[in-house]
Design brief:
The chain is an all-alpha fold and 305 residues long. It has ten helices and no strands. The chain has helices at 4-16, 23-30, 52-68, 72-124, 129-133, 137-157, 163-171, 180-193, 203-245, 251-283.
């Protein structure tokens, strides 16, 4: 009979060893229970994901062997090779998806950065910056906000605009661009600032200049807002088309995928035919015809094998 002291020692020792603790250790130890997989037990690659990834692998293997019903070592090896080929084809498709995602996922971020960069360059281009801003939704949105700011300033304080606002009006908002409504606001601002210039203006004329300038500023803000919305739709459609054009891997990656896929398909057909031949011989049935003829042509000497 086991003494109390021995029981306590057994319990203490039992607490010390609980098997593998890490996810990788659990995956590694789970291979011990495989009934098959002489070749494919090295096929599963642990990538740090959920341990259920291996459970899916193991379940698929068990179902595969039950479906193929191999008898004897040679048939088991052939079924194992078939399973390994199927799994590699699955992994190839995952790799293809990864190649495409690598091209597509940075796309939206790059588009935003390109728009911001283009807007920054346009604002520094005193001569052509106004029209360069008009080419993008980001630029038009900036102009819409800018002209609304001009309108608010005129409505609250009237003309002339502040020195800083006047400089922005002329250099960035289109005052010196020849765009007539923007140019007219700049002209009215100059007239009021200089009290009419060579021909002094009266209070009624100053009021009229303020009203026209305010109306033009509001119209420009609305126009650029509408243009921004239209361009945003166009840019979204262009972006979608660009993404769709990236939905195949690059030529170099595609070539590797196609070569590996062709190799796996050949292995699959050859192994399947050999398995069917062996099973037919075991069951006393005629051997099936080959599903495909594998031909290799040497382009240098025309040799066919």
């Amino acid at each position: 009979m086991t003494s109390d002291k021995q029981l306590r020692a057994n319990r203490s020792n039992g607490k010390k060893g609980k098997g593998p603790v890490s996810e990788k250790g659990k995956v590694t130890s789970s291979f011990n229970a495989l009934k098959h997989g002489i070749l494919s037990n090295q096929l599963f690659i642990f990538t740090g994901g959920d341990i259920t990834d291996y459970e899916s692998f193991s379940d698929f293997m068990e179902c595969f062997f039950k479906e193929m019903q191999p008898v004897g070592m040679m048939e088991t090896l052939l079924v194992d090779r078939l399973f390994a080929t199927f799994w590699r084809l699955r992994r190839l498709h995952i790799a293809e998806t990864g190649f495409i995602q690598k091209q597509v996922e940075p796309h939206s971020v790059e588009r935003v950065i390109e728009n911001i960069a283009a807007q920054g360059v346009a604002r520094k281009d005193v001569e052509n910056g106004f029209f360069r801003q008009m080419r993008t939704s980001t630029g038009c949105s900036h102009l819409a906000v800018s002209w609304q700011t001009v309108a608010d300033s005129i409505q609250e304080k009237g003309l002339p605009l502040s020195v800083g606002m006047t400089r922005l009006l002329d250099e960035e908002f289109g005052g010196n661009s020849g765009f007539w409504k923007a140019a007219n606001v700049s002209i009215y601002n100059w007239i009021v600032q200089n009290k009419g210039g060579a021909k002094p203006m009266n209070a009624e004329e100053e009021k009229r200049f303020n009203e026209i300038a305010l109306d033009y500023a509001k119209q420009l803000s609305e126009m650029f807002k509408m243009l921004s919305d239209v361009l945003a739709i166009h840019e979204e459609e262009t972006s979608k088309a660009d993404v769709q054009s990236k939905m195949i891997p690059s030529p170099a990656e595609l070539d590797k995928i196609q070569r590996y896929d062709a190799h796996l398909q050949r292995v699959l057909l050859q192994t399947l035919h050999e398995l069917q031949r062996m099973q037919a011989a075991r069951l006393g049935k005629p051997a099936p015809m080959a599903a495909a003829l594998d031909v290799t042509l040497n382009s240098e000497n025309g040799f066919v094998s």
